[in-house]
Amino acid sequence: MKAPKALFLEDMPAGPPTGTLLAKLDDLPDHGGKDLLFYDGKHRLQLIIQRMGEQVYVYENRCPHAGTPLNLFNDQFLDHSGTRLICRTHGALFEPHNGLCVLGPCKGMHLRPVHFELRDGAIFSA
Ligand code: FES
Question: What domains can be seen in the chain, in order of their start residue?
Fold first, then answer.
């Protein structure tokens, strides 16, 4: 299945405007993640920010299987090996670099990537 186009957050209901600070790199330890929620009183938009070494990945926090967030209650998105994102609901595994589900009920589907900009040691919506 073809990967979905990346989201521009400001085009999404509840999405922040371009240039909004999403996270500082110093606040994300290597292999650390962050669950970010935007809510405008009507719509929710939930994001995954995952750091892996010098790389940062940002996805909509919505599993392509059942539409739930990947995490259940904290900022832990990696599986026990620390190499793949995991959905805690039914265990789907995703490649961090492209969001492809490689194992589980949504195998072959993708997480929705989000446009972002990395500058001055921080991650901003783009
Ligand atoms: S909701 Fe994610 S694997 Fe089922």
Answer: 9-125 (2.102.10.10)
What's the pTM? 0.96
Instruction: Kindly report, residue by residue over 67-112, the tens digit of the pLDDT.
Output: 999 998 899 999 999 999 999 999 999 999 999 999 999 999 999 9
Atom of ligand 1 nearest to the CA of 67: 1
Helix, strand or coil for residue 68? coil
Contact between residue 96 and residue 50 where contact means Cβ atoms under 8 Å apart: yes
Residue nearest to atom 4 of ligand 1 (CA): 90
Which atom from ligand 1 is nearest to the alpha carbon of 106? Answer: 3
* pLDDT tens string 101-119: 999 999 999 999 999 999 9
- Residues in contact with ligand 1 (CB, 6 Å cut-off): 63, 65-66, 68, 87, 89-90, 92, 104-106
- Measured distance CA(91)–CA(14) in Å, rounded: 28
